[in-house]
Structures are given as C-alpha cells and as structure tokens.
Amino acid sequence: MSQRVLVVDDDRTVADVVCRYLRHAGYRVEHVSDGPAALAAVAETPPQLVVLDVMLPGLDGLEVCRRLRQRPDGIPIVMLTARGDEADRILGLQLGADDYLGKPFSPRELVLRVRSVLRRAGGEPAGAAPEVLCDGGLVVETGPRVARLHGQELSLTLREFDLLAHLMRHPARAFRRAELLERVWGWQFGDQSTVTVHVRRLREKVEADPADPRRIVTVWGVGYRYEPADD
Questions:
Q1: Taking Cα atoms as reference points, which of 2, 7, 14, 92 lies closest to residue 41?
Q2: Close Cβ partners of 15 (under 8 Å, ≥ 6 residues apart)
Q3: Beta strands 99-103 and 175-176: pairing type?
Q4: Could you tell me which of 72, 160, 76, 71 has the C-alpha nearest to residue 119?
Q5: Which of 80, 126, 130, 147 is positioned for an S-S bond with 53, CB 3.0–4.6 A?
Q6: Domain range for residue 105?
Q7: Residue 126 falls within a domain, yes or no?
Q8: Element holding 136 (H helix, E strand)
C-alpha cells in the first residue's frame, strides 16, 4: 500500500500543486487548510508524513508542529516557510521539524525531500548494513532506529538520529557544518544554521550538561566532532 501524506496549507493554489505532484509520485494525499483540521486528521488516521505550512489560520504551523512532537509516534514533518524567514525556519527545527523548504519552491524538490525523509523513517537506505554504535552508556541501533542513554530510550527526530549516528561512526573527527549538511541531509547547498539547531537539540538529549557538552563538542572555526567517553 502506498504511503499517506497529509498536506496542510491554506493557499489553495500551492496545495493543489503539491498534492498533484505527490500523487503523481505514488503517494496517497490528504489536504486540510488549517491547524485544528490538521491535528484532527492526524488523530483520526496518522499519516506517514506531514507537509506543514507555517502560516495557517486558527493555529499556526509552528504550534501544530509542537503538538505533533508531543505524540509518541514521531510522524515526520516537512515544513514550508516564507523565503528568507529565518526565525520561523529555525524555530520549526527547534520544535522538531525534520526538514524545511522555503517558498517559492520547486514541487519536484519537495517530492525528493519527502521521499528522502520517508526513506530514513523506514530504516537504513538500501544496501546499508544495520549497526549498533555504543559509547559511554549511549547506544544507537541503526536498524530499528533506536537510541538509548543509560537504558532510557531517547525521543529523536529523523535528522537528530541521523546526525548522532553519523558523528558516532566517526569519533574524534571534526566535521564542517557544510560537510554535515551534505552527509546527513544530502544537501550540497543550504542554511548551515540547520546543523547548529540540530546539534543544540541533540545536546539537550545526550549531554549531562548541554551548556558544557562532553560528547558533541564544538571545534572552533571548523564545526563539530563526537568525543568518545573515557574508558
């Protein structure tokens, strides 16, 4: 059965184009026009992914994102933001959006982003062998996409999980933000603040003191590296 995508946008022209391209790509698509309707649709029949506009009547997309992230199922979210509206984009990522596109955008690019996020949500890319990454009480299993810290399962978004797994695969190696955008997000171009926001969120979940990180450390003038725990 094809995967189901919920499109939440009050601009009928944009919504019609998005829905048409997603259906042509093989997805089952439902469209609603406001925040309360989006929450009701998810509660009734959870989709595999939500395409969520920020500017919505009744309840804006950022609040919808926040409420969806309170659910235990971790439905992937791709947010649509106004071009150049950095504050909304960063806040959306902080609230747990998995990806974003700025308007105006290419519908073909949106389909590619949706496909990429859904592939990651379904497990490892084709041909990749599952791994179990362990360090100092932190365990990441890439097959079932589960991360635990001292036995307690962590609630990570898709991108947070992918970023953590990538850094743990390459301990003590410093990565530039542009490298992480390409390796984790698959973007050759993009706003590097995306990486900064995800690192901040990860630290809140894996560090004993996020203000004094010992696992995901900043390499000034370069980017970030994963520092293995002392044995």
A1: 7
A2: 7, 9, 31, 33
A3: unpaired
A4: 76
A5: 80
A6: 4-121
A7: no
A8: none
CA-wise closest residue to 155 among 36, 72, 65 = 72
- Count Cα atoms within 13 angstroms, Cβ side, for 124: 15
Please tell me which residue, 85 or 31, carries the higher pLDDT value. 31
| Residue 204, domain CATH | 1.10.10.10
Q: Are residues 77 and 97 in the same domain?
A: yes
Three-class SS state of 199: helix
**Helices marked H in the chain — which ranges?**
12-24, 35-44, 61-68, 86-95, 107-121, 158-169, 177-180, 193-206
In a domain? residue 198: yes
Quick check: 47 and 121 in contact, CB under 8 A? no
Indicate if 115 and 141 belong to the same structural domain: no
pLDDT digits (tens, 9 = 90+) for 187-198: 777 678 889 989
Answer with the one of 86, 121, 156 that is the final residue of a domain. Answer: 121
CA distances for 2 relative to 5, 27, 44, 144, 151, angstroms: 10, 6, 18, 21, 35
SS3 for 8-27 is ECCCHHHHHHHHHHHHHCCC
Residues 150-209 pLDDT 10s: 999 998 888 899 999 999 999 999 999 999 988 888 777 767 888 998 999 999 999 999
| DSSP-assigned beta bridge partners for residue 132 | 141
Cα angle, residue 207 at apex, residues 136 and 219 outer, rounded to 5°: 95
Q: Which pair of structure tokens corresponds to residue 220? A: 């000034």
Strands 28-32 and 49-53: unpaired
